[in-house]
Specification:
Blueprint: H1 57-98, H2 118-121, E1 127-128, E2 136-144, E3 151-153, H3 155-161, E4 166-173, E5 179-187, H4 191-207, E6 210-212, E7 229-235, E8 238-246, H5 257-282
Antiparallel strand pairs: 1-2, 2-4, 3-6, 4-5, 5-8, 7-8
Length: 283
């Protein structure tokens, strides 16, 4: 048995409840004589404080195993947290070593000194071929040292305030029926200025205070609601953009899947990867 049962001590009592007497035999004694037998009193049962049992060996071993396992799990969590924290700190450094925009090759015009040319941005005079996309037909190309010629409203002044020195752009026919595009780059002084313009552009476009102009310039009622969709992105000290319109004059909505595809083709893939990637490689 795992646990012992302590002995019980009871009173031995007579029928009347008095203490019992033990009578011995009288052989060997004189007649008429008797010796009272010694009275024996049953011992009272004394309550005892139960002893605290020491845990048996199997229990003690199990406790040690559980505690050890908990400690190992805790150490593993601490080590994993430290690993991910260190990896998060190192990841930007690794990206900076491979990303030409973060590595400083295109971070400012003081490093990237050569001006853009139409031949560099649009080497084929007839079409633009974004990676993994159908070609866009070129209608017209344009470059200007005055960045305001490619903008409307307050956007030109914002670009000039951040050192914009030139714009190179083209009017294109998209490989999707009924869509026309103007796409190009603004050459700003540094990446900080391009990022500042990027941050202010959304509110400016939404309020109608400034925007990108189409090529050729659209002849519309200045009080009419805009029907175009614009997309842009800052890359190094350049601001890349496109303006998407429909030849039938219908509204191009922000969730138009064709407009999303055109922006990816021209702003991200062609201007961002092909043109600036080529420039960064030659810097």
């Amino acid at each position: 048995m795992l646990y012992g049962t302590p002995p019980r001590y009871e009173h031995h009592s007579s029928a009347r409840g008095g203490l019992a007497l033990f009578v011995r035999g009288i052989g060997g004694m004189g007649s008429g004589q008797h010796r009272p037998a010694p009275r024996t009193v049953g011992r009272d049962r004394i309550p005892r404080r139960p002893r605290r049992r020491a845990p048996h060996e199997p229990e003690r071993t199990a406790q040690f195993m559980v505690r050890g396992l908990a400690a190992l799990i805790l150490l593993g969590l601490v080590a994993m947290t430290g690993f991910f924290a260190l990896a998060g700190e190192r990841q930007p450094d690794a990206e900076a070593a491979t990303d030409p925009y973060q590595a400083g090759l295109l971070s400012s015009r003081s490093v990237d000194t050569a001006p853009l040319t139409v031949e560099e941005v649009f080497p084929d005079q007839h079409e633009v071929r974004p990676p993994a996309a159908r070609p866009y037909r070129i209608n017209l190309t344009h470059t200007d040292a005055d960045c305001r010629t490619a903008t409307t409203g307050d956007l030109g002044g914002l670009l000039i305030a951040h050192g914009c020195s030139q714009v190179v752009r083209a009017g294109l026919i998209a490989p999707y029926e009924g869509y026309e595009v103007t796409a190009g780059l603004f050459n700003l002084a540094d990446a900080a200025g391009a990022g500042n313009v990027d941050e202010q552009l959304r509110q400016m476009v939404e309020t109608g205070d400034g925007n990108f102009a189409t090529l050729p310039a659209a002849r519309t009622d200045p009080d009419a609601l805009p029907t175009s969709q614009v997309g842009w992105r800052a890359r190094g000290h350049y601001l890349l953009y496109c303006v998407i319109t429909r030849s039938d004059g219908k509204l191009v909505t922000s969730d138009d899947p064709v407009a999303v595809k055109i922006t990816g083709d021209l702003v991200d893939a062609y201007l961002g990867t092909t043109v600036l990637g080529r420039r960064a490689a030659s810097a």
